């Protein structure tokens, strides 16, 4: 699994990120300025379709499933990134980090 964390501008091949970028553009928010504060957890691997060539499907849609272990990995990466950003943040007025 090739899970990455980065700014929205770096994400390619993700339908959700594409929709978010489109929404930002519609809201007239500059993607470059949004890249400074909008971070994403994404995979650089291409999603595979779960279609069996021999199966008789009632509809033509491609259904993508998710495994608990995969969504868990994304959650852990997001939590790690949040902690990294908090701990790397400048000290508060008292001189202490914002996470004790």
Overview of the structural elements:
The protein has a domain of 66 residues. The chain has three helices and two strands. It has a two-stranded antiparallel ribbon with strand order 1-2.
Note the overall shape. Answer: flat
What structural class results from the helix and strand content?
alpha+beta
Q: What are the low-pLDDT stretches, counting only 5+ consecutive residues below 50?
A: 49-54, 92-100
Order of helices and strands: EHHEH
**Roughly how many Å is the radius of gyration?**
18 Å
Average pLDDT, to the nearest integer?
75
Strand content: 5-15%
User: In total, how many beta strands?
Assistant: 2
**Fraction of helical residues:** 25-40%
Number of helices: 3
What topology, given as strand order, has the largest sheet? 1-2
Could you tell me how far the N terminus lies from the C terminus, measured between alpha carbons in angstroms?
Answer: 32 Å
The major pleated sheet works out as: 2 strands, antiparallel
